[in-house]
Design a protein that fits this description.
There is one protein chain. The protein is α/β, with parallel strands linked by helices. It is 44% helix and 15% strand. It contains twelve helices and eight strands. α2 links the parallel β1 and β2. The chain is globular and about 70 Å long. The termini are far apart.
Length: 268
């Protein structure tokens, strides 16, 4: 049976850094997992991938010992259970707006009598060995709060038995609570958005569950950890690749004095 290292890390009072995968490629997953993250999340909601990519990506991350998680497309039992069967040790579920929805989500994560997860851990059995109902105690259920309705029901959601934490996506939280007044994005500095983040963190602490935040930069992530968040995601494969490539090209042009020329000359 496996021990969820992220859960253990939290129990020891240590905050965690999470990586993010949106590119459906096992080699990319392997590279990211080797960089020292505590956990890595495969984004099956907005990422350029589906289950046929999720499985080999989970396999590629196994050697690193990182805690593998999946953000599923929706609160749908088949997708949640299949990701767990593939070896995900945590599930991030989007758009949880009520205690009823949170309870439903949690029920898909756990085998009876604590839930309604169907038994068939096809890959998890080989990845971890001895995989059975004891997985109930190790898999992490993280609900996303992204709307005004979710904020209105925050206390009830956080009190859901079996919920391990709340994961905040600032872009959707901004869209969902500010009625179009603010553009979506990470690393919010507006006082009203910071107040929402602080409230989520405080409610999580009061209910003894984990507060997690998606961030765009290490500086903001460190600030969020200072506020009391337990996990911060910093960037992701697409943004990191684009930033590193852009910086490399810009540096080359600075050193050589070459000017970018972009032209399209038709088919050749």
């Amino acid at each position: 049976m496996f021990t969820n290292k992220l859960k253990q890390q939290w129990a020891e009072g240590r905050a965690a850094i999470n990586g993010w995968l949106s590119i459906g490629n096992a080699f990319t997953a392997e590279i990211m997992a080797a960089q020292g993250y505590d956990s890595i999340t495969i984004d099956a909601q907005h990422g350029a991938l589906d289950y046929s990519a999720v499985l080999p990506m989970l396999q590629a991350m196994r050697a690193s010992g990182v805690t593998p998680m999946v953000r599923v497309p929706w609160r749908e039992p088949g997708a949640i259970m299949k990701a767990l069967d593939a070896g995900a040790q945590g599930i991030i579920c989007p758009m949880v707006n009520s205690a009823e929805q949170a309870s439903e989500f949690v029920s898909y994560m756990r085998y009876p009598p604590h839930g309604q997860r169907s038994f068939g851990p096809t890959r998890a059995t080989f990845a971890y060995g001895g995989y059975g109902v004891s997985a109930n105690e190790q898999v992490l259920a993280l609900a996303m709060i992204e709307t005004q309705q979710g904020m209105d029901n925050l206390e009830a959601i956080a009190a859901t038995p079996g919920l391990d934490g709340i994961y905040v996506g600032p872009a959707d939280l901004t869209l969902g609570t500010q009625e179009g007044r603010l553009p979506p994005g990470f690393d919010r500095e507006e006082p009203e958005m910071i107040a929402l983040l602080q409230r989520i963190k405080e409610v999580c602490k009061a209910n003894k569950i984990r507060a997690c935040l998606h961030c765009g930069t290490p500086d903001y992530a460190a600030k969020a950890i200072g506020w009391g968040f337990d996990l911060t995601t910093v960037g992701g494969d697409t943004r990191l690749l684009a930033a590193a490539a852009s910086a490399s090209v810009a540096r080359w042009r600075d050193l050589t004095g070459a000017v970018a020329v972009h032209s399209v000359k038709g088919t050749y």
